[in-house]
Amino acid sequence: MSVNLATLLREGTKKSHSMAENVGFVKCFLKGVVEKNSYRKLVGNLYFVYSAMEEEMDKLRDHPIVSKIYFAELNRKHSLEQDLQFYYGPNWRQEVQLSPAGKAYVERIHEIAATAPELLVAHSYTRYLGDLSGGQILKKIAQNAMNLHDGGTAFYEFADISDEKAFKNKYRQAMNDLPVDQATAERIVDEANKAFGMNMKMFNELEGNLIKAIGIMLFNSLTRRRTPGSTEAELATADS
User: Fold this and answer.
1) What's the 3-state SS for 200-222?
2) Cα–Cα distance between 82 and 199 in angstroms, integer?
3) Among residues 173, 188, 204, which one has the least CA distance to residue 71?
4) CA-CA to 181 of 20 to 30 Å: which in 16, 84, 156, 229?
């Protein structure tokens, strides 16, 4: 028995999707307010999340449900390694750290892989379709906001997918063809909402870092303007 899982997931996660887009860190990002240190921490968390997910999905590539939505061309681990080397340097493995919210996310992926593998469909849908849908827009925002010209956005690039729209249709059809009943489909939708929640917790951790960084930048800017002998101070005196 199969159900229209793609539609159920889209409709069943609308509220969570909207909430995630309205988290302070995400709203700032979409407006082009991105601080490199906060962003690289996000990339670090995503590296551990995708590593866990891709490790488990590879183990389950013969599973009657997981195997149907396992597409190696979606894997993000390698691209995230490239970005981490860009942001942290060659010793990035010693530098990058998993945050508490990221740790809970990774643990959840390993937990369901061991106890209810079919729920990995929810995490695959939440992460990969989101990456494909908004990847190019987010890539441009990151490049412009952080003045990136020679790297740092490999995460958004799907070199093995030539037609993203066609691939998304293929993926949705694969979800609709999954041998799951209504009850299982509802559990997958519930897990997708949990995945959005775990993402929001990671964003909330970064929001404090972003606000602090913006505050420091504003403070430094105001301090420079008031420093005796500075160009800003001279201009301020001339205007008074």
Assistant:
1) HHHHHHHHHHHHHHHHHHHHHHH
2) 22
3) 173
4) 16
Distance CA 52, CA 111 (A): 11
> What pLDDT score does 16 carry?
95
CA distances from 7 to 16, 17, 22 (A): 15, 14, 23
Which tens digits make up the pLDDT trace of 16-43?
Answer: 999 998 888 888 888 888 888 989 999 9
DSSP 156-216: G--TT-S-HHHHHHHHHHHHHTS---HHHHHHHHHHHHHHHHHHHHHHHHHHHHHHHHHHH
Find the DSSP H helices in 1-159.
5-12, 14-21, 24-30, 36-59, 77-88, 92-95, 100-115, 120-124, 130-146
Tens of pLDDT, residue by residue over 47-64, are 999 999 999 999 999 999
Q: Give the torsion sign (CA, 28, 84, 191, 130).
A: positive
Closest CA to 23 of 183, 186, 170, 211: 211
b/e map 166-177, b = 16+ CB within 10 Å: ebbeebbebbee
pTM for this model (two decimals) = 0.86
* Nearby residues of 148 by Cβ (< 8 Å), 6 or more positions away: 142
